[in-house]
Amino acid sequence: MTDSAQQGKARCDAISVQELLDAETVTVPAYLREQHNPVLGEEPLDIGRYTSRTFFEQEKLKVWPRVWQFVCREEELANPGDHVLYDIVDDSVIVVRGEDGVIRGLINSCLHRGRALRSEGGRVKEFRCPFHAFTWKLDGSFKGMPCEWDFQHLCKSGDGEGGEGRERMGLPQVRVASWKGFVFINFDANCQPLEDYLGVLTQHYAHFPFEKTYKAVHVQKVVPCNWKLGHEAFLEAYHSVATHPQILPYTADANTQYDIYGEHVSRMITPMGVPSPHLGDVEEERIAQSVLDQYAPPDTPRAADTMPPGMSARRFLAEINRQQFAAASGEPLDEATLSELYDAILYGVFPNVQIWAGYNNNLIYQWRPNGDDPNSSIFDIRVLARYPEGGDHPPAVPVHVLESQQGFADAPELGGLGRVFDQDLSNLQHMMKGLKASKTGAVQLASYQESRIRHLHQTLDHYIAAP
Is the pLDDT of residue 1 over 60? Predict the structure, then answer.
């Protein structure tokens, strides 16, 4: 099934992703050829989905307790006692590696008076409540507390001996599963297995060694918008022409291919090294130089001096990536396609995370509510980098939390991408105001280019309607 067959009335007539794949000189993996974009309808969305406390409460009740949610990378939990906190609306979970090497998700609440056991991640030998010193082992089993004689009703069994009572004092746990180094949790004890939830993602990412990567960048910022608004900004490339004009010489925004795979996975492939159809014809040297100007070190030779005559900018830039990525991983990438070396191949996993495919340094975007506030969200940007085969696994970098007055350009580790993210935020900061001021009560969506947004909301509706 092809997207042109399903969405023939909504398709840019410029060169397509599939036509670019036809020009590859190596075998194109099957997953890049799999196209699926069913007609999802054209009805507008109710603005209340972003602004209503009632809809937010439905998400709290029906969505977040039942979906698999990405928390961290396994390298962040390298040693026993290493743990991170994952907060989602009113819930808080300690995701920790135990002495036995098992990763668990422990509810972050003391069973005595309810104080949160941890306020930040790190490494500990046990979990000791700062209020009254109730203490648990890394596996969540109860260790003890002061004045145990005054709590026999909690710590003793009916015959006066310890045992059953202590088992009742174990910290409640959530489901935890890992896939290619990604750690997910689910509050639903009866949820489907993670790999079933991920669907085609497990096959499409089969030959990408994400388990041999490490978290090289992690930047976080609180953004004054509903979590869906932020997430949706990365579900389409349609906004590039107005929001990111500087990338148009080398980003074929309107040529992007959009795919929907089941309830939980969607994809877009944006060709790079090809000009936006909004610009018309662009000289190949200008395409290449636009990229070098924005992302290469200042002393990089100009494209006109280094690009072989007759070579396209797309191939020239992809071949630079091939050399750099092969050197970083220590593996030859002779059979990698130009698309996998350079294009923006971005998969979304419902409800709130997106993971880049390809052999480049893979970006991960994640949006979630900021506590119990439907008007505020937390945006995490991570970058996974490769390291040579046989080398020591580099440690994960700590999260760089930006202050409210800071932009992503203030995070030097993001390089030229910082400006791009700030351009996205320049829209999001005004979207909540505009939505609340609207008198139509409706959000309109493009049939094809914003199909991933409609898919997100239809899956939300499925969860909310379920008993």
Answer: no
